Amino acid sequence: MERQSSPTPQQCRAARHLLNLKAEDLARESELSTATILAFETGGRSLASRSLRDIVAAFSRHGVTFESTSGPDGEVSSIVSRSQREAVLRAQSKN
Q1: What does the alpha-carbon distance between residue 81 and residue 90 come to, in Å, rounded to a whole number?
Q2: DSSP of 26-39
Q3: Contact 56, 3 (CB under 8 A)
Q4: What is the CATH architecture assignment of 2-94?
């Protein structure tokens, strides 16, 4: 079962690079400081729930979501783009 989740610091940085966003871009779009984004991504700071929601919302506007799936080996987190989700839905509709 998939569910939306908050990004880990590593996922945040990876998603930002996937979208070719600078830390300054994500900071502006999430209304946080660049220092806050960089501190989170390097593990030097944890974020309040509201700040994480703002980051998730910024990525969502770019078509990127963070999902967690429970499986036999435990929790697995992933970054999913809009195009990936659409491809999966098309494949499922063919079956």
Answers
A1: 14
A2: HHHHHT--HHHHHH
A3: no
A4: Orthogonal Bundle (1.10)
Q: Give the global pTM.
A: 0.78
Residue found under tokens 């990525």: 59
Q: Give ∠ CA 33-14-9 in degrees, rounded to 5.
A: 55
pLDDT tens-digit profile of 54-86? 999 999 999 888 887 777 776 566 666 666 666
Three-state DSSP state, 80: strand
**Which residue's structure tokens are 């989170």?**
40
C-alpha dihedral sign at 50, 21, 86, 84: negative
Residues 24-46 have pLDDT tens digits of 999 999 999 999 999 999 998 89
Q: Report domain extents, the chain.
A: 2-94
